[in-house]
Amino acid sequence: MSDLQLISPDWPAPPRVHACSTTRHGGVSTGTYASLNLAKHVGDDLEMVLRNRALLATQLPMEPLWLEQVHGCTVVNAACTCPDAQADAAMARMDYRICTVMTADCLPVLFCDVNGTAVAAAHAGWRGLVGGVLENTVKSMQVPAETLLAWLGPAISQPAFEVGEEVRNAFLAHSSDAAAAFAPGRTAGKWQADLYRLARQRLAALGITQIYGGDRCTYREAGTFFSARREGTQTGRQASLIWLA
Asked: Which residues of 126-147 are buried (b: 16+ CB within 10 A; e: fewer)?
């Protein structure tokens, strides 16, 4: 078993804010789940998943809040939410409440304010982006948007993310600016979608100007990340976490 390999956000967060994303390295799962799969719902052996979560917990001040993600827009308070609640984002204003989202191509977005009073994590696949998960997350933090920093964690890149016309139309119905985030696909009627750009557009519209990250690809970096688009349903999930301390 190799050591955990964690990615730290490249942002000027205040000292009270702690954050990281896991990679696929450092766990005990095998096969397509190798090795640090943190999700219980993808077909991996439950004992292996729980051991992986325990390994991650050794690097954290307390147990993360694991959510049952449903590609929706619900945001919960990590200080008063039971584990496995159905939600796709969590926020916290109390110390040592670890907001956590899992992904394997979808976009994890971490938030904090410049004063270190609030943090949040959002699971933003295309459905969540269309539905407003980022907007709901920012609203839940109850701080001025212009004081927020956002970090775009590992997600699928535009060259690897082909979608149908219905996905493009859903974004265009919200804003015509979204057209700039789609390039013609390799087959007729398909488009290459830029999740990172779509998220930046949404964040900018809220007044957030300090946006970082957005330079990884879960699909192409097979040695580092899980990717559902690359491997299908039989693959693991990495996690992005943020907390105050």
From this structure: bbbbbbebbbbbbebbebebeb
**Is residue 36 domain-resident?**
yes
CA gap 226, 237 in Å, rounded: 6
Q: How many of the other CB atoms lie within 10 Å of CB of 233?
A: 9
What tokens were used for 218?
Answer: 């879960």
Residue 228 near residue 104 (C-beta atoms within 8 A) = yes
CA distances from 58 to 41, 53, 54, 118, 194 (A): 22, 9, 7, 24, 35
Q: What is the CATH number of the domain that holds 79?
A: 3.60.140.10
CA pair distance 167, 141, nearest whole angstrom: 28
The verdict on pTM exceeding 0.90 is yes
The pLDDT tens digits of the residues spanning 169-212 come to 999 999 999 999 999 999 999 999 999 999 999 999 999 999 99
Q: Facing residues of 91 across strands?
A: 77, 120
